[in-house]
DUF4153 domain-containing protein (Rudanella paleaurantiibacter), 414 residues
Amino acid sequence: MRDEIILNQNNPRQLERLYRENRPSFKVAFNELYPQLANNPLTEGWYQRLNFEGEDTTWGTPAERLFVIIAALLAGTLAKFPDLFSLDEEFFYTRNIGFIVFPALTAYFAWKKGVSAKVIAMVAGIFLLSLIYINYLPQNKVSDTLVLACIHLPFWLWSILGFTFGEGRPTDWQSRLGFLQYNGNLVVMTALLVISGVLVTAITINLFRLIGVNIEEVYFGYVVVFGASALPLVATFFTQTQPAIVNKVSPLIANLFSPVVLVMLVVYLVATLFSGKDPYHDREFLLLFNALLVGVMALIFFSVTGSHTENKNATQVLILFLLSAVTILVNGVVLSAVLFRISEWGITPNRAAVLGANLLMLIHLFIVAFHLFRALTRKSDVSLVGRSIALFLPVYSLWSAVVVFIFPVLFGFK
């Protein structure tokens, strides 16, 4: 390695090849040779590149770490409200689970990005009005509109988080792509933290059992509750302070899983034809189809909006196009099943909500597939696919607001 570096010290292409073939050995050999290679602009640049420690080793500022700790403690305290104030757990958590997570995340990005006081006041007002509204809806355990409002409220709060992430600029579609990329990174980091937390929990509980101390009740009642409440915020902190590491993981996972999911989806659809399952009459099967649809759409979006989108090769674009085409087929089946159920048994809040969501997803999928096809045939750039995804996000936000705030009144709180 040393001889090759000396031989190619003025050849940047060959140095890059040597570096990529064996990075650790290259760094060791180069640093040993650096004194005799000095006074060469090319080798000086390589030395700075190989020994730069900067941002990769930082874990945020002390103020940022303090902010995360305080916000995490507040989120955990909020999650303990039913115990602290003898509240009904089902009533509290079904309506307020989103307020344990999203205000802390929103406050973090508002503080980190220096969002204007006007935007902060508007976001705080939306959160407060949403909190009051959802908790004053009539308590009726068989109310479909109440259940729909509780399910869609986190999506509405998620969109407010995205608005804050973009610093209150509603027309900035690139910030929406950044928000989607952040969500992909957040999912990966949260999964890693959950795995770590499960291992730590198992080890801790069993260690105390060995000495005859049972800490399960206290541990799950406080450590797990506070840890779970703080998890999204802590994962967010890692994604923002270690972007060089995290940004490489989620695109890699998306690229690895896209072909696997494509094959699985095709096999699943073929197997469905012979299984006797009928989404037109089987409500649970229809719900499963919807969940599958949402998951695959999320995979497509995160694959497109991952880092280095412009460098996707033709194979990756082809896989995403085929995946979107198959997903359109799944969406068509779901949509036809919903329309069939409406024609047979009439409109209900649940059917109206599913119908609206599937129509929006179908339109969006057609737009994304169209741009993927154009990118595949080299008639446009892959970046336009990301733009088409970002521009449609406010439509989902508006629909979630309709289900949360209008459906209960429209259907008489039934």
Notes: The mean pLDDT is 86.
